[in-house]
Amino acid sequence: MKISINPVYNFSFKSSDRVVYRDSNNQICSCDRNELSASQSGDLIYANSTAFFRPDLNFAHEQKYSTVGNWIGFRKTIADEFKNTPKVNVYDFACSDGSEAYSLILSLIDELGEQEAKKFFPILAYDIDETMVETAKNGVIPCYDDDIDRLAQNVHNETLKLYYGIDFAPSRYPAHSFLASDALKKNVKFSAASIQDKISQVEPSNSLVLCRNFLPYLGTKDMLEVIWQLGKILDDSSLLVIGHYDKFKVYNALNACGFREIYPFIFKKEKVQ
Fold this sequence. Notes:
Radius of gyration: 18 Å
Largest sheet: 7 strands, mixed
Structural class: alpha/beta
Oligomer: single chain
Order of helices and strands: EEHEHHEHHEHEHEEHEHEHEHEE
Number of helices: 11
Distance between the termini: 57 Å
Helix content: 25-40%
Strand content: 15-25%
Number of strands: 13
């Protein structure tokens, strides 16, 4: 096993860039986004674009915590908000290949230590794509140089190297694979399901709900329905986290449903007076 850390700042690379589309025969197909033709892109159903420590959270919390290029501000925000909560219910919807769920687990253990971080586990992670769910469960996830660079920027506790490794095989594309250990995998439960399937099971209180960078793919009607349901379910002890891709499409709807942005990309219901 070899760990290669070469800073590369081309954030177009992702641990997963799989897209699913409907072809001219109305069959559902998949391919890498780079292989998608212009005609096929018009029939795109959804994309599985994701990455380890996805960069939209890198700078979002810089002002409060003076951090650059990592999730440290984000994870401190989460730790601060739930510091007096004995058990936190964590949901990761549209989890894709699991890289974001694994990133969150590593972040929380690095920030809080293994014992304190346990209150956030197991994360319940869902995706409608069974292929991605199986990849997440297996814990062998393709990754690129910039994924490895972000892992190095975000994981500071050397003992966390027991939770994952990086396999390097030059003959393979991509050449790197993230290898989740059993100690990491036990902290998340992956299942094939949509947010509509599971939204009624979200606990109202002390929940951290990740709905990142997929809401517009639902279509306007379903997206607004999901936001309304979350507004009806969650109370002011819970947090909702969205992504850069979502923000300008859902901001007004979140406000209309009683959510307020307390930190970049993190929303909380207003306390009922």
